[in-house]
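Troubleshooting log. The previous run stalled partway through. Resubmitting the same two chains, unchanged.
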Amino acid sequence: MDANERISSLRERIDEVDEELVHLLNERARLVQELAEHKLEAGIPLFDPRREEEILRRVVEINEGPIYDSSMRDIFELIMHRIRDIELQRRGE
Amino acid sequence: MEVRESTGVQARTNNGMIRPQSFRVVAGPCTVESYEQFEASARAVKEAGFSYVRGGAFKPRTSPYSFQGLGVEGLRIMSEVAGDLGLKVVTEIMDPADIDVVMEHAQILQIGTRNMHNFSLLKRVGSAIKGSKEHGVILKRGFAATVEEWILAAEYITSSGGDNVVLCERGIRTFEPSTRFTLDLSAVIVAKRLSELPVIVDPSHAAGRRDLVVPLSKAAVAAEADGLLVESHHEPREALCDGEQALPVEDLMTLRETLSPFASAMGRQVI
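Second attempt completed without errors. Output:
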């Protein structure tokens, strides 16, 4: 396999992983939406800093690299933030 | 008061200063300049029908050479005058060393925009007011802080045991020079949806000019705010601090009736 073929093959695999990530992120968002419904019913605030910190610590614990732990935290902070934004909007509609 | 175990940020829709279906107005001068000055301004607050008076004893000024406030003497003046008039005192605390004396003279401890990130102060204030039914905290948003950072700062107070925390939006730094800061009304709504802490608005510091205070106050009602923190002075032109943004007595007197139709439309009563 020459270099071009290897690159092409890796790119295909990256596309597959991205597709999987998109599905998984949306699955995560759906779970958060379900959770938010229950929180709304119970009158519990959407933003729970303790739980978020728990998630971030867990993510770092299971991180095997090569992504740095601090970068993994950043990535998940952004994921949580964006999904929370969807919920905030739903609450206002 | 309802306390939720699942999170440190607790729902406090009835936390003393803020009451359900009401719109609380806190008014008073930027700073305590003398007994006579504070007495005249506080009397106007009382006559306007409001029950919380604000005043600064320790002033965080940008320049160390500006008037820094009367300190403990200012606190004494406030508590004496407010006590005589049956008002409650809201004043800023800057130094953890002053917590005891401030709590002796004031019911609501205000943490200013410059101290929103002063986590040791937040924790000390949280511990100090723990269990107190008399005291509460107004936490102003840092002028460059995100809503999330603001709520996390409140979390420092609540996780240290302090309940009765009220957030205060006071404008953020933007490129717009027409106003001193830009009142971020969307932050009021977002903060309330995120945390369920009460949120009040300080249109005086946001605008930095008196002519915008009443219109912004109306907008604050519409943006679901729980109240206002406004500067008022019996002689704004002679005020030592922020006179250009203080409401004169005549405007303070009409504030309640001006805001009432808006509050009523939102199912609230101005108090």
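Takeaways: Residues 1-14 of chain B have pLDDT under 50 and may be disordered. Strands of chain B lie at 22-28, 52-54, 88-92, 108-111, 136-140, 165-169, 199-201, 227-231, 269-270.
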